[in-house]
Every structure is written in structure tokens, then in C-alpha cells.
Amino acid sequence: MYLRFLGITAIILLLSNCANMNESDCLNADWQLIGFEDGSFGKNESHISQHREECAEHDVTPDLAAYRKGHFDGSKNFCTTNNGFYRGRQGKDYSRNCPEQFEGAFLTGFTDGQTLYGLKKVLNQRAADLEGAYKDIDWLEHTIAEKSELMIADGLNREQRIVIRNEIAQHQHQQDDLYSALAELKQEFEYSLQAYEQGTDEFSNYLLTE
């Protein structure tokens, strides 16, 4: 049901809201329909001020009462618990654009969606930290191997070999530190993965309705 609504309203958006209102749009405007479209896409009722500015150039004044009625009806589509969850899970903002009658339901879903978004954000960061550590270890291993070959190559004097040896020792120390940190990084990743999976289970009633 929710996806079907998104599909229908996306078509309306492409056809109706992709450009500013020209003279013909203003002269032939169905202000209730325009309000409905704006409400359906979560635009605040104050968005009529933009239409007013565009149509003022053509001596047309929006019908505020019709717009408000349409906006209220359109907001019923946008300000649902499921849509609130969807927007919260995507990390989107809420601009307090839902009428008071629908705001509670929307915020219930929005808060839950934000919770899941936060859990996913932490999981992504923990995964990136762990992957980064493995990449650094691989780079150090490759670099140590290269410098080890260089140290025994012909043409180097004693001082040059000492410099390379010290560089190898430094890289090995860095590699040891990373290996020591791996256990904690893995544990943090596992904890965040469990937390996200628990959140997904907790909010599965939303996910199943998308």
C-alpha cells in the first residue's frame, strides 16, 4: 500500500511540481489540488507563499481556503506512521509540516525510524573501522616486504641500511598495534551488528508494510 502511494504521488510530482508556475498555471490553477500535492509531499502549508510570489507576476492571487483544504487532505497521505518511519530511517529531517491532528502518528514512526537509522549509522562506522584496520595491516605487510628486499639489495651503504631497518621496525610496531586493536574492533562490530538486527526485528512491522 505504501509503495503504491509513493508510485502515484511520484508521478504527480513529476507532472505538477517539477517547474515553477507560469502564467497559464496561475490562471488555470486548481488551488485545492495544488494544496493536496504539496501536502502529500510533506511541504509546509506556508509553501503557498512561493505560489503567491510566482502568480503575483501574473496578477493572480491563490485561493487560500481551497489550498488549505487540499493541503490538509494531502497531509493525511504524508503524515502517517509508516511514512514517518521511512523518513526517519533515511535520516531525513522533520520540519514540523504535519497538521496537529496527524503529527502524533507521524512522529511515532519518525522516532522509531531515527532509532534504526542511528543503529545502522553506528554499524556502518564500526564496519569501516574494521575494514580500515585490515587495509592498514595489509599495506604495512606489503611495505615491510618491499623494504626488507631493499635492505639487502646491492649498492647501499651501512647508514642507508640502518635507516631502512629502522623504518621496518617502525612499521612492524604499527602493525603490532593494529593486530592488538583488532579484537576490540571485531567485538564493537559484532555488538553494533546485534543491536541493528535487534532493531530491525523490533521494527519489522514497519519494514513489512513498505
Question: Your description of this structure?
Answer:
The protein has 210 residues and is mainly α. The chain folds into two domains: 2-114, no CATH class; 117-207. The protein is 78% helix and 0% strand. It contains nine helices and no strands. It has helices at 2-16, 23-27, 31-40, 48-56, 64-78, 81-89, 100-151, 158-202, 204-207. The longest helix is centred in the middle third of the chain and has 52 residues, at 100-151. The chain is elongated, with a radius of gyration of 29 Å. The N and C termini lie close together (7 Å).
How much helical structure, as a percent, in the residues? Answer: over 70%
Give the biggest sheet: none
* Radius of gyration over all CA atoms, rounded: 29 Å
What structural class do the secondary elements suggest? mainly alpha
Mean pLDDT: 89
| Topology order in helix (H) and strand (E) letters | HHHHHHHHH
| Number of discrete helical segments | 9
The backbone outline, from C-alpha atoms, is: elongated
Give the total of beta strands. Answer: 0
Number of domains: 2
Quaternary: single chain
- Poorly predicted runs of 5 or more residues: 1-19
Q: Strand share of the residues?
A: under 5%
Q: How far do the termini sit from each other?
A: 7 Å
